């Protein structure tokens, strides 16, 4: 298969977005994109009716292999697992990647919820809802009957019903994050409790590489106590910015010109329902 530079620029963001949403890993998605293009060059052109569909099929099947493999089984991961945060601001406004990556279904909350789905449920939901593929196209991509694809889609939607209602209004959410930071700096507990759900859960991902909570922390009082404890131990040279993380406002902390941590939020009814702190250094270099 001959792929021109223009076609590479067109399809690369699509394939990366597909892989990242399926795997929650920037590194794995990038590796499989390159592998897909390399393998595509070995395919005879005359066998192809649709380059885009064929590339998506190759990408999807390789991601399915990884999802089902022992390597991707997180039973032995130390502590909670968060998807790798993606810093959208690293892409220029004019880049095709930015338009693809700013589609819905990219938030850390949504990607984490995808972990509750089987690999095939995840694929069908993403292709149908995230990339507007028809069932007839999905059938050809994953080699399943249309009836099975419809059932997979229905089950996936049912499992993800709990994430429905997530606020995706960037400016409104940024205002809430700003208010949280101001109240936190003033140590105003009353204001903080107005912004944090009573049943909030915090997921701290250190991957066993840095100190982090080994279990999810629940309830507003416990979460706030944890955050104040973490803040009191931060090095004096740590500073932070509010940046576009996975299409939503997040807090990116820096130390010695490196990213120290990324904090993302699941906001529902103007309150933090879940908080995700990613400190595993293996997940941070890719967004510097």
Automatic annotation (TrEMBL):
Cross-referenced Gene3D superfamilies = 1.10.1740.10, Winged helix-like DNA-binding domain superfamily/Winged helix DNA-binding domain (1.10.10.10)
Extract the GO molecular function terms from the UniProt entry: DNA binding; sigma factor activity
Q: Where is the RNA polymerase sigma factor 70 region 4 type domain?
A: 109-160
Q: Where is the RNA polymerase sigma-70 region domain?
A: 8-71
* GO biological processes: DNA-templated transcription initiation
What protein is this chain from?
A: RNA polymerase sigma-70 factor
Source species, domain of life: Bacteria
Q: How does it assemble?
A: Interacts transiently with the RNA polymerase catalytic core formed by RpoA, RpoB, RpoC and RpoZ (2 alpha, 1 beta, 1 beta' and 1 omega subunit) to form the RNA polymerase holoenzyme that can initiate transcription.
Q: Which Pfam families match?
A: Sigma70_r2, Sigma70_r4_2
């Amino acid at each position: 298969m001959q792929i021109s530079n223009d076609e590479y620029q067109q399809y690369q963001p699509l394939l990366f977005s597909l892989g990242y949403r399926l795997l929650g890993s920037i590194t794995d998605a990038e590796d499989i994109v390159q592998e897909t293009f390399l393998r595509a060059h070995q395919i005879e052109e005359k066998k192809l009716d649709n380059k885009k569909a064929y590339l998506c099929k190759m990408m999807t099947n390789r991601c399915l292999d990884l999802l089902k493999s022992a390597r991707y089984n997180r039973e032995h991961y130390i502590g909670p697992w968060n998807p790798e945060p993606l810093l959208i601001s690293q892409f220029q406004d004019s880049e095709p990647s930015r338009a693809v990556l700013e589609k819905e279904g990219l938030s850390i909350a949504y990607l984490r919820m995808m972990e509750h789905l089987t690999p095939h449920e995840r694929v069908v939901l993403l292709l149908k809802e995230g990339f507007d593929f028809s069932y007839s196209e999905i059938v050809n991509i994953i080699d399943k009957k249309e009836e099975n694809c419809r059932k997979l889609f229905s089950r996936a939607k049912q499992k993800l019903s709990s994430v429905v209602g997530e606020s995706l209004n960037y400016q409104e959410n940024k205002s809430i994050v700003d208010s949280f930071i101001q109240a936190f700096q003033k140590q105003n507990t009353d204001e903080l409790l107005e912004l944090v759900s009573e049943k909030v859960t915090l997921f701290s991902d250190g991957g066993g590489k840095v100190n982090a909570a080994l279990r999810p922390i629940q309830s507003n009082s416990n979460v706030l106590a944890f955050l104040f404890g973490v803040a009191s131990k931060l090095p004096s040279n740590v500073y932070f910015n509010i940046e576009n993380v996975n299409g939503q406002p997040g807090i990116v902390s820096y130390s010695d010109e490196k990213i120290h941590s990324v904090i993302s939020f699941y906001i529902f009814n103007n309150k933090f329902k879940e908080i995700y702190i990613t400190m595993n250094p293996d997940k941070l270099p890719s967004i510097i």
